[in-house]
């Protein structure tokens, strides 16, 4: 961990010393929209991030990702999975006048169930290894260690009461039912995760879900076809980049942010360079696209 933090500081200092942050902001970000991806940040960390962003950036909801800009960089804040800790972020959203999009897994919110990767079984079996298995194999492997999908017990997602409290200030959108890696599902499971997850959330919220996020950023043309057929208007990937009116609405790009990033590392991540280097190491290409399973 110490070595990792040291490398981060060296990279961040290089980015700021040579002004790559300002150059890339002018060349690539401009007045486009950076869709920032969080999962379960602490309120004080997110407060620091948004305070820094406000110095040069305007906040917009995800629904305005293709709208014309006013010459300033723009950012849309998104959070994946609907972790129970997201409820603590509400005062931060209100303070900064930010309307974020929270992508929820319909079977992990509003009920006492656990996100599969948070279960001790996933840690024993190896989370990254499980992601690469077929969905049937992943569930079978988790079952060996005591995890059963949809089994009620300790809840790790937002409660119904928390969702109701947050609704006036955030947009809740769809992120499948059980958060499998869609590209590792067969056609039936993949289609159900997308379409049924949408229906379940709409029934819970009483509003239409128009936006989707691919779990783990994994998708192919098949997933895009199912997303379109379900009636979604956009889908967010984990591919690196910025968005404007010319962006494919079903391949929205993003910048993944570490939930625990100090401001100096957050500033570096906004350039896209750390994510690009990570994708290059794992995917061995220069496209900026996230690794696919």
From TrEMBL:
<dbReference type="InterPro" id="IPR051398">
    <property type="entry name" value="Polysacch_Deacetylase"/>
</dbReference>
<dbReference type="GO" id="GO:0005975">
    <property type="term" value="P:carbohydrate metabolic process"/>
</dbReference>
<protein>
    <submittedName>
        <fullName>Polysaccharide deacetylase</fullName>
    </submittedName>
</protein>
<dbReference type="GO" id="GO:0005576">
    <property type="term" value="C:extracellular region"/>
</dbReference>
<feature type="domain" description="NodB homology">
    <location>
        <begin position="73"/>
        <end position="293"/>
    </location>
</feature>
<dbReference type="GO" id="GO:0016810">
    <property type="term" value="F:hydrolase activity, acting on carbon-nitrogen (but not peptide) bonds"/>
</dbReference>
<dbReference type="InterPro" id="IPR002509">
    <property type="entry name" value="NODB_dom"/>
</dbReference>
<dbReference type="InterPro" id="IPR011330">
    <property type="entry name" value="Glyco_hydro/deAcase_b/a-brl"/>
</dbReference>
<dbReference type="Pfam" id="PF01522">
    <property type="entry name" value="Polysacc_deac_1"/>
</dbReference>
<keyword id="KW-0732">Signal</keyword>
């Amino acid at each position: 961990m110490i070595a990792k933090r040291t490398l981060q500081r060296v990279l961040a200092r290089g980015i700021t010393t040579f002004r790559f942050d300002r150059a890339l902001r002018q060349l690539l970000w401009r007045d486009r929209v950076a869709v920032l991806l969080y999962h379960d940040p602490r309120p004080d960390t997110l407060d620091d991030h948004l305070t820094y962003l406000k110095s040069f950036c305007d906040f917009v909801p995800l629904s305005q990702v293709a709208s014309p800009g006013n010459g300033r960089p723009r950012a849309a804040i998104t959070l994946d999975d609907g972790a129970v800790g997201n409820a603590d972020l509400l005062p931060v959203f209100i303070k900064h006048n930010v309307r974020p999009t929270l992508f929820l897994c319909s079977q992990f919110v509003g009920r006492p169930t656990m996100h599969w990767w948070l279960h001790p079984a996933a840690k024993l079996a190896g989370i990254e290894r499980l992601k690469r298995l077929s969905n049937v194999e992943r569930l079978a492997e988790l079952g060996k260690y005591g995890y059963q999908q949809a089994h009620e017990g300790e809840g790790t997602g937002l409660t119904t009461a928390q969702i109701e409290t947050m609704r006036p200030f955030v947009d809740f959108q769809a992120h499948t039912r059980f958060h499998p890696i869609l590209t590792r599902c067969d056609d039936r499971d993949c289609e159900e995760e997308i379409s049924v997850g949408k229906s379940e959330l709409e029934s819970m919220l009483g509003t239409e879900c128009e936006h989707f996020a691919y779990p783990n950023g994994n998708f192919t043309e098949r997933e895009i076809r199912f997303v379109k057929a379900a009636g979604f208007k956009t889908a967010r990937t984990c591919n690196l980049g910025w968005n404007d009116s010319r962006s494919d609405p079903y391949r929205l790009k993003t910048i993944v942010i570490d939930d625990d990033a100090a401001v100096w590392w957050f500033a570096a991540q906004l350039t896209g360079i750390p994510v690009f280097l990570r994708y290059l190491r794992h995917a061995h290409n220069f496209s900026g696209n996230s690794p696919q399973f």
